[in-house]
């Protein structure tokens, strides 16, 4: 069965609409009267903080279903330590939508508890890649954490490290030290989020390893539930997807170079070629992606889903 047609924009009769690079978020009510958030993963794709004009049909469905897989595992394996925001992954319980709107949202929707978002990206790194590698080359440290000398690009770290970042509305998030993160949101809360983040990363890393995949690094978001202001922070947004994590095929892993991956690096590589050729300068508007690039990117996402979950995705 072919992937669904791209959903690039939603316009639902619900209040509080917010649009991010990929997700559209609305305030909603369930049939039982509970206030919730409706989080829709569109098929938009961004690179270098620029949203491309065409999307990748089905990408939002894959991201949502990967998140659901991990949220279920968190609830099972980390029960007692933490919980998450996910109530449902369809819009059937959401009031005020037509049957046609629910069909459009099928597979790409998370109904979640409303939260006040903690303004820190909780990043965990098990390998030296991306901005961590760039920082290490300058200072032999990442976010204030001193690392052994002589590490190569993409080397496995002696132990996973917690490297928080600020959440920016636009532009790149900024890597910060844990001390600065504590100053922003409080030491007790930040210590809790650090411990939870490391626990989720280890859970994800161990499962992925059994499936022939390296989870190199990832980022999490947490929130404080509006309906329980004195409650513990809960895991929100997406979790352990190819958009929020670096997944590498273990059988092709070789330190000292960039690794092949299951994420939108396929798109980034194409765009970098355009930049080298002087056909784009990494500013809006982005170029239209050719069919072979969109198809190849979706194939990467579907391969990640298949390997992580052990089954094919049913559209």
How would you explain this protein's 3D organization?
The protein has a domain at 18-115: 2-Layer Sandwich (Phosphorylase Kinase, domain 1). The chain is built from seven helices and 16 strands. The N and C termini lie close together (7 Å). Strand 1 and strand 2 (23-29) form a beta hairpin. It is an alpha+beta fold. Strands 8, 9, 12, 13, 14, 15 and 16 form a seven-stranded antiparallel β-sheet that branches. Strands 1-2-3-7-6 form a five-stranded antiparallel β-sheet.
Write the layout of secondary structure elements.
Elements: E1 18-19, E2 23-29, E3 35-41, E4 46-47, E5 50-51, H1 59-77, E6 86-88, H2 99-104, E7 109-113, E8 115-117, E9 120-127, H3 130-139, E10 141-142, E11 145-146, E12 156-162, E13 165-166, H4 178-185, H5 187-210, E14 213-225, E15 234-236, E16 245-249, H6 265-276, H7 291-309
Antiparallel strand pairs: 1-2, 2-3, 3-7, 4-5, 6-7, 8-14, 9-12, 9-13, 9-14, 10-11, 14-15, 14-16
Helix pairs in contact: 1-7, 4-5, 6-7
Corresponding CATH architecture of the domain at 18-115:
2-Layer Sandwich
Along the chain, the helix and strand elements come as: EEEEEHEHEEEHEEEEHHEEEHH
The general outline is globular
Q: In the CATH scheme, what's the topology name of the domain at 18-115?
A: Phosphorylase Kinase, domain 1
What would CATH call the homologous superfamily of the domain at 18-115? Answer: Phosphorylase Kinase, domain 1
Strand content: 15-25%
Largest sheet: 7 strands, antiparallel
Helix percent band? 25-40%
SS summary, helix count? 7
CATH domain class of the domain at 18-115: Alpha Beta
Radius of gyration: 19 Å
Report the average pLDDT across residues: 94
The total count of strands amounts to 16
Q: Unreliable segments (pLDDT under 50, ≥5 consecutive)?
A: none
- What structural class do helix, strand and pairing data support? alpha+beta
